[in-house]
Amino acid sequence: MLSRKYYKKLAEIFTHGYNESYKNNALITGKIENSNRGCEIVEMQDKLLEFLREDNPKFNEDKFRNAIRIDFKALNKWLDTE
Length: 82
Known about the structure:
Shape: elongated
């Protein structure tokens, strides 16, 4: 069973992936919006959640999903400076 520190690190990794996906797409489209890459990350996240539920029956999926934070305000600010 994974420890809390691993759950936190996994959420950080997915947050980073989503942020980079939004940024890469924004460089193409000029706006912060979802992309195919973001959809692929969601599929990976779903597979990970399936594994985490199997690994730990007490796994709190909602808490994990909430730990993956996308700061759209910061992303839009980043886009305005690019």
